[in-house]
Amino acid sequence: MNPTIAMITFRSMLGRRRALLLLVLPAALVFLAAALRMIGENDLDVSENVLQRFGLATLLPLLALIAGTGVIGPEIDDGQLMYVLTKPIPRQVIVLTKLAVAIVLVAAFAAVPTLLAGLLLSGTAEGMAPAFTVGVVVGGIAYSAVFVALAVASRNAVTIGLLYALVWETLLGNFAPGAKSASIQQWALSVTDALTGASYVRSTVDLGVAVPLLVAVTVAGTLLAVVRLRSLSVASAE
After folding, report:
1. CB 143 within 8 A of CB 68
2. What is the average pLDDT value for the chain, to the nearest integer?
């Protein structure tokens, strides 16, 4: 971790425009949960649907995409990262710092609102609120690693990330069991399933498979980002 890089990245990510992007979806989730509670539509079935479909399947990947690509992608595009690469800072430190910032942002803007929405909807019943919060955190770590790697590897990281999150995980996942099983969303849901007694929460992937896959994807994404950043600095020097 490099505190200076982390501070600069946080300042950049929490500027006016990006802060608004980070706030809109969480605010919508909490508002929806509050509205459902007010009208009495907050049983466990409704709670599970909101937390899974809005929190885990929509809010989490979109916020992770904004955070994961935003912490490094714009700096590559406008050339600001070249200044950092000229300093004697190991590439893995740069990547790990950027990834840590992305994870903190996802925890703040996705996990905390999910916990608040869960408590508004179902309180502490069946441990659903904390279970989904943990699922969002572990899923957010994996998503962030993938999207940071995409941002380093491609200028079209946002497009590729949207295709993965919306087409592969959401669209194809509803029709192709294989696509659903190869999904960070389902792996995170497996962790959630293991932590709650609610019968409505069900994942298509066993916990013993989901956890190693989450770890593998996180490590692979981080290593890919480091390798690509090294080649980026060499190419720039030439």
Report:
1. yes
2. 86
pTM over 0.85: yes
The 10 Å Cβ neighbour count of residue 228 is 18
Residue 232's domain comprises 3-237
Residue corresponding to tokens 């803007």:
109
Helices 60-70 and 16-38 pack at an angle, to 10 degrees, of 170
Give how many domains the chain has, as a whole number: 1
For residue 117, is pLDDT > 90?
yes
State the Cα–Cα distance between residues 51 and 29, nearest whole angstrom. Answer: 9
Compute φ and ψ for 205, nearest 5 degrees: -120, 135
φ/ψ bin of 159: left (φ > 0), alpha (ψ from -120 to 50), beta (otherwise): alpha
Residue-wise DSSP of 179-216: HHHS-HHHHHHHHHHHH---TT---SS-HHHHHHHHHH
